[in-house]
Amino acid sequence: MDNKYNVVVIGGGPGGYVAAIRAAQLGLTCACIEGWLDPAGKPALGGTCLNVGCIPSKALLDSSHHYTFIRNEAADHGIHVPGATVDINRMIGRKDRIVQTLTQGIAGLLRKNKVEWLQGRGRLLPDRRIEVMPTGAQPGEPYIVNADHIIIATGSVPTRLPPAPVDNELIVDSTGALCFRDVPRRLGIIGAGVIGIELGSVWSRLGSKVVILEALDEFLAPVDRQIAAEAEKILRKQGLDIQLGAKVTGTGSNNREVFVTFDSPAGKQQVVFDKLIVAVGRRPNTEGLGADEAGLKLDERGFIQVDHDCRTNLPDVWAIGDVVRGPMLAHKAAEEGVAVAERIAGRPGHVNYAAIPWVIYTWPEIAWVGKTEQELKGEGVDFRVGLFPFAASGRARAMGETGGMIKMICGTETDRILGAHMIGPSASELIAEAVLAMEFEGSSTDIALTIHAHPTLAEATHEAALGVSRRSLHI
Ligand code: FAD
Ligand code: NAD
Questions:
Q1: Atom of ligand 1 nearest to the CA of 321
Q2: Which CATH class is domain 356-468?
Q3: Is the distance from the beta carbon of residue 155 to the nearest atom of ligand 1 less than 6 Å?
Q4: Between 3.30.40.10, 3.40.50.1110, 3.50.50.60, 2.60.40.420, what CATH number should domain 171-280 receive?
Q5: From the CB of 220, is ligand 2 less than 6 Å away?
Q6: Ligand 1 and 288: CB distance under 6 A
Q7: Do 171-280 and 4-158+283-351 fall under one CATH topology?
Q8: For 357-382, what is each residue's pLDDT tens digit?
Q9: Is the pTM of this model over 0.90?
């Protein structure tokens, strides 16, 4: 094995494997170190996103959405499916096969691009050397590789909550919650963030009575208030019992059930669950990386400190994705990976941090880009708002999906789009138009002048844009 590369990437998640592919496409010799083992103990690429994050959670969200549609909505279309039931093992098996196909696909992409996968865990040594410690049932001997440039993409892991230690039986984190073999009758979730409401939706649709305990008094605090209020109303109506201002103080179990005690505005309370999911955020993963010994600077929250261009304090050592500042999102990690590969190859790299879309895959979906109304007010910016409810969209009516709205916020003077916020059917796809418009520094007038096919959900974006200058046609 040649142990010298132009670029060595540590971590094969969406940040790392994408950086490695782009570096190789640019003519650099490249290796990617990844030590992930799947539940069968087999090495796997793809990181959190493919193995235990974006992909498996969306597979279960889609399966459970179909079940809800069949049970609750199909009859309205004149379709009767009496006695629909769930085979949970088959549903989980489908999710596992999707994960396997995609992670094996990444291995194929690395081979195609001549990126060498060094199976194992990487540890930084001085002078851009890295020790690789193979993992798995019969790991080989550790060895050392040298790099002109190192890209660290070691991702993140779930934040621990001392009063609710994960035992992977009764108390689980998001990974455990993706492979329950029975539908828990009573499911508790700590944290009403992205994971809490996505996985809460999955298990609630499949029949669990879900209670979500959220420490903050506000629901979805980072989201535009109007959209968050609509989301809260719809999710409560779907059966999620969301308790705000609930501070968990302890847990206990009798090996069959979990007891959770918490302080809430109504006083001290105790609830009993069959399973409890802890979803209170994620923290940067630098465990075993040898950051201290190598002199790599971390910030006070444990993220690897980087400049705007993802350079660390060590020469020619870069860091990207969840392990550095910014939103913990797969597409943000991947874009930073591409940009860093470009910079290493001497080309300009581009990441527009002001136009990173967020999507929460509940149904209806929640999506946004740019600033919220409350942020702009806080900054003293003058703006105008256009709003269009899906109830007024012909296509949404035809689909029977009339909940939610699209909201566009533009500068009063410039008309430039400062933020777009939506809750509604296929918001995950609709947000792309607003992101593109922001990338082109577009205005509501640009979208208003763009012809949208009829009847589509995208017409709601057009109407929201028209609404910024009080020109909506269908409300
Ligand atoms: P990761 O994907 O975490 O990959 C890091 C990799 O580095 C891992 O494979 C790890 O094994 C490896 N590694 C760590 N240390 C070492 C070492 N020393 N040596 C070798 N390898 C090492 N984001 C979205 O954008 N959309 C979603 O829908 C979405 N859904 C999610 C659902 C869940 C349940 C979770 C938990 C997360 C979700 N995310 C989603 C977040 C997304 O998964 C992360 O933002 C993304 O995976 C970050 O990519 P990354 O490459 O920075 O890190
Ligand atoms: P989060 O930050 O989205 O939400 C955590 C929630 O837990 C917050 O509302 C927080 O106030 C609450 N909380 C914190 N401590 C608490 C406590 N002691 N008791 C009760 N509540 C408490 O984090 P998450 O849901 O764990 O997800 C982690 C990250 O993974 C997300 O921020 C996101 O970056 C990524 N993710 C993205 C997607 C997506 O893009 N669709 C899906 C899942 C995860």
A1: 52
A2: alpha beta
A3: yes
A4: 3.50.50.60
A5: no
A6: yes
A7: yes
A8: 999 999 999 999 999 999 999 999 99
A9: yes
